[in-house]
């Protein structure tokens, strides 16, 4: 996937405008010329300038209307979408269910799904998922004392 | 002095100190090689163990773990494009490109050897110039720190490559991310959207994992399943290549070591900033700019030397004035007090043996990088033979656990995924990631010193040039910015529209 300079420049400039508008609502400090809005406002102005510069350059270098978004072929797009969904689903599963279900169970499921989908060897994937889950638990919870929530396995571990 | 030195040698040669150095080095190696776990975390995890040790063994374990974890942070960066520490992100692109050319042993070996050289040069400077450099740093006020921060931000232009507009746009994104959280002067929450987890700002490590690890995992998962068959590297053993790199790039290594020590000695500026600035300066001065980003050893030489030298530099103000140069020395000062050793100007008179023992420990801890570097090279062969299909889900779990471990809560994972999406969009737009990282690192420092200076002068901008130090730094910064603007305008006028089309 490729995003054209014009599109990303416009996004940056819009973000800059939104920042400048938003920091206008920040409170001013009595007796001071500058408040909490100063630095983000300067950053917003920078975003508008450099984003605007990218838009100008994009328009000047493109012959005719620029193609704002170039998508890859169907196979690459399908694989990429599935991969992105796997990553998003895994992270949100840990965030949402980490405390109740437990990190160890979720780690095992995420590994197993990922390995089965890509490795396509069930026995090997299962063995690897179990081994890696145990290794991660040993390293993070036991060795490094990271308080990973164990959820359903709290009494067992 | 001689009797102090002999006494120190006896202290360091004791079995408990030597064993502490070896065990802490191994511990630092493991922690540093895990993405998301920093040198500070390695040292913090050691604190309960230092209670049981003698004062010098306790300090030895802290120094060894810190030095080793900073080096080990280069390993996942080089092999998997996931920086173990923020410092290693500065030269990760070249390190990984070299690994893809089959030069994993060369990269890790060079990282260890130049880390050792940087550490040893830093220690020599620590011994020779402690009082002088600490005095210099103590004269700095918020004005000098503001200009120094601006100079650091200017490095964004240097690390961004040729495209100034994209480099600056990327820097602005980083600065905006640094604004998230409570305002320094009033405590007003900015861009937190009502989330308590964002009040303290965006956690740097989860952000780094999200920006570098997630796009890489996405790339691995999107590809056909393969066992990576890397090409054979250029002929010659890793050792001889390191020797050649040492002869060829001795000046970037020396400059990086001296700069790293000086930057490390400034309170608040640690190994991360030292590595970034050293790499940026080397990129500016290099005679081979065309090789950068495609697998070049020079940035690894410059950055690797600087980050380990900064570790020694941070001990200068810590030992002489009990002012920590970074979080690691802050922990070390606490441990020293706990052990009945009071750092400060009097420590050289009252506890000379202890000071010299610390110096000796620095030498030993840095020399330990070599055998552990060899271990890293052996490990690299194993990691690189694992199929990508196994690596990608494993990395995802490692990234999630690393992001969780930094604050021990789930907010780190949300930061990681948010910044991961941002990095994917930036990659698709060919916006460089390095200036954003620099903006996140330096943004808070620049803003805090700017606001502190403005409040102290009631908004008088001329006061930024009143003090001699700040005037010199200010003029230097403005001259640098001026030259960049002139160069950009000149380039824009000089390029014909057809040339621009070709470049686009």
Number of helices in the DSSP assignment of chain A: 5
Radius of gyration of chain A: 24 Å
The count of domains of chain B is 1
Main sheet makeup of chain A = 2 strands, antiparallel
Strand content of chain B: under 5%
Give the class of chain A from helix and strand content and strand pairing. mainly alpha
User: Pairing-aware structural class of the strands and helices of chain B?
Assistant: mainly alpha
Note the topology.
The complex is a heterodimer of chains A (157) and B (504).
Chain A: E1 2-3, H1 5-23, H2 38-61, E2 69-70, H3 74-101, H4 103-119, H5 122-143
Antiparallel strand pairs in A: 1-2
Helix pairs in contact in A: 1-2, 3-4, 4-5
Chain B: H1 2-12, H2 15-33, H3 39-50, H4 55-72, H5 74-80, H6 92-100, H7 104-138, H8 142-159, H9 164-179, E1 181-182, E2 189-190, H10 204-222, H11 238-248, H12 250-264, H13 271-285, H14 298-313, H15 315-321, H16 327-338, H17 347-350, H18 352-367, H19 369-385, H20 388-407, H21 411-428, H22 434-456, H23 468-494, H24 497-503
Summarize the structure.
The complex is a heterodimer of chains A (157) and B (504). Chain A contains 5 helices and 2 strands.
Supply the key terms.
heterodimer, A: 157 residues, mainly alpha, 5 helices, 3% strand, B: 504 residues, 24 helices
């Amino acid at each position: 996937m490729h995003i054209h300079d014009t599109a990303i420049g416009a996004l940056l400039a819009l973000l800059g405008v939104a920042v400048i508008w938003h920091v206008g609502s920040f409170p001013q400090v009595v007796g001071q010329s500058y408040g909490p809005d100063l630095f983000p406002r300067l950053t917003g102005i920078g975003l508008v300038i450099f984003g605007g510069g990218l838009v100008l350059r994009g328009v000047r270098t493109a012959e005719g209307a620029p193609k704002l978004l170039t998508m890859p072929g169907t196979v690459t797009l399908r694989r990429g979408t599935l991969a992105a969904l796997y990553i998003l689903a895994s992270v949100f599963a840990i965030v949402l269910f980490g405390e109740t279900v437990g990190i160890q169970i979720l780690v095992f499921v995420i590994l197993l799904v990922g390995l089965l989908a890509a490795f396509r060897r069930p026995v090997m994937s299962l063995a690897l998922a179990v081994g890696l889950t145990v290794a991660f638990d040993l390293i993070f919870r036991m060795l490094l004392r990271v308080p990973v929530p164990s959820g359903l396995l709290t009494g067992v571990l | 002095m001689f009797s102090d030195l002999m006494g120190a040698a006896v202290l360091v040669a004791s079995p408990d100190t030597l064993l502490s150095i070896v065990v802490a080095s191994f511990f630092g190696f493991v922690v540093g090689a895990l993405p998301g776990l920093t040198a500070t975390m390695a040292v913090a995890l050691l604190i309960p163990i230092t209670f049981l040790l003698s004062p010098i063994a306790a300090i030895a374990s802290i120094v060894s773990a810190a030095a080793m974890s900073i080096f080990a942070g280069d390993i996942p960066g080089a092999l998997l494009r996931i920086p173990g520490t923020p410092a290693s992100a500065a030269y990760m692109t070249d390190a990984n490109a070299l690994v893809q050319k089959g030069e994993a042993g060369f990269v890790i070996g060079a990282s260890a050897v130049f880390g050792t050289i940087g550490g040893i040069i830093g220690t020599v400077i620590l011994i020779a110039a402690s009082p002088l450099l600490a005095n210099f740093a103590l004269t700095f006020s918020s004005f000098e720190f503001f200009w120094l921060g601006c100079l650091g931000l200017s490095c964004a232009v240097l690390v961004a490559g040729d495209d100034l507009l994209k480099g600056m746009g990327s820097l602005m994104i980083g600065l905006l991310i640094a604004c998230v959280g409570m305002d320094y002067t009033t405590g007003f929450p900015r861009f937190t959207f009502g989330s308590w987890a964002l009040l303290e700002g965006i956690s740097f490590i989860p952000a780094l994992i999200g920006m570098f690890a997630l796009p890489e995992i996405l790339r691995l998962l999107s590809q056909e399943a393969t066992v990576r068959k890397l090409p054979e590297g250029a002929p010659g053993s890793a050792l001889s290549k390191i020797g050649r790199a040492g002869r060829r790039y001795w000046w970037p290594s020396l400059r990086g070591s001296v700069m790293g020590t000086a930057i490390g000695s400034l309170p608040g500026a640690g190994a991360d900033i030292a590595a970034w600035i050293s790499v940026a300066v080397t990129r500016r001065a290099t005679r081979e700019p065309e090789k950068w980003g495609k697998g070049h050893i020079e940035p690894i030489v410059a950055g690797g030397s600087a980050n380990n030298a900064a570790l020694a530099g941070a001990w200068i103000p810590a030992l002489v004035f009990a002012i920590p140069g970074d979080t690691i020395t802050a922990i070390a000062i606490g441990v020293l007090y706990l052990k009945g050793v009071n750092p400060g100007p009097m420590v050289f008179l009252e506890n000379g043996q202890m000071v010299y023992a610390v110096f000796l420990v620095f030498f030993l801890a840095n020399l330990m990088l070599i055998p552990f570097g060899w271990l890293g090279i052996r490990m690299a062969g194993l990691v690189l033979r694992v199929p990508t299909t196994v690596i990608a889900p494993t990395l995802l779990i490692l990234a999630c656990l690393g992001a969780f471990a930094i604050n021990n809560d789930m907010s780190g994972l949300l930061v990681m995924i948010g910044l991961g999406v941002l990095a994917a969009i930036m990659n698709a737009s060919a916006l460089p990631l390095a200036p954003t990282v620099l903006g996140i690192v330096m943004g808070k420092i620049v803003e805090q010193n700017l606001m502190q200076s403005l409040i102290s002068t009631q908004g008088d901008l001329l006061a930024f040039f009143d003090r001699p130090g700040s005037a010199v730094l200010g003029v230097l910064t403005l001259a640098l910015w001026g030259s960049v603007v002139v160069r950009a305008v000149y380039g824009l006028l000089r390029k014909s529209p057809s040339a621009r089309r070709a470049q686009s």
